[in-house]
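Fold Annotation — chain and its backbone

Encoding — discrete vocabulary of local shapes
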Amino acid sequence: MAETYKIFTVNPGATSTKVALFEGDKTLFSKNVSHEASKLAEFDEITEQIPYRLEIIEQAIADAGVSLDGLDAVVGRGGGLLAVEGGTYVVDETLLDHARRGANGITHPAQLGSLIAQHFANTADCPCFVVNPPDTDELQPVARMTGVDGVYRNVHLHALNLKETAIRHATSMGKAYEDCNFVVCHLGGGVSVSAHRRGRMIDGYDIVGGDGPMAPTRCGALPVGEVANWLDKGHTTADLRKLCHKSGGFVSHLGTSDAQEVTKLADKGNKHAQFVWDAFVYQVEKSIGAMAVTLGGKVDGILLGGGIAHSQELVAAITENCGWIAPVTAYPGEFEMEAMAAGASRVLRGVEEAKHYTGKPAFTGFNWNIE
């Protein structure tokens, strides 16, 4: 019988922090701890929120009567880091420094994950990890090339949930993730479509950089010429960046980021809402086809995760239009907390070797660009 470990996980969001305690596959405690938006707004720097968040988190744990004695590991969300290959990383001073200052240039609550986790790990005197950070980048070299010298593709994806979904589906097939090829989608406030070949995400989209399908809050890929015309009309690059990750997609068209609201509007006869929804599904399907090509058409499964995968209409449409590529399976919701615990468990069991964050990005340019 495999040894079980007691693992505490921390996943900070915009106005809450998800925490969970696991013992093996069993969830001992799970709570989405809310923080007052007005209180968070008082802090100029995101890292200044840590003492306040910690106080609320620790109070919630105490109120629930949960003991963190005997922890084997603590895992935090790995935001703020430079691009790395997938895996479970030891939290050390270099990693904490990059998380603290947001070395990837993106200010996001996820960068607090490792910093808060380290506090609990210090108290418990146990290892601290991050698993498949948001900036996981395993692109094959040819996928990085564009038609502009010096402009290359990178990725920002829901790596943690994408990989966990693939790992779980491979297990259900009686296989290892490293022996399978999948197209894996996360369909939520952001939309990730990715190609997984034998344990590596060899292609995918930069979902915060204007790439891939549109999403509830993101514009997705845009025709560059039309964007140039749009900028010439007086819009700014700051406006454009907001469209990439905050005010694009459903928000731009319909003023809502709620996919259920969009489908309700469509059901009531709102033709604009119906067309936006149809275009969204179409773009996801087209992206799935593109990722299948990167795998040479050898696809063991098309996997759909995220909150929007609860839509039976969407799953049916993707199954109808993409099912000829490979079987389509829906895993509605996300496994982020479970994925973090599972990554630490694999290291503790010796199934996977922990990696060390070097502070150097996974891609620094092609040989002909490096002097």
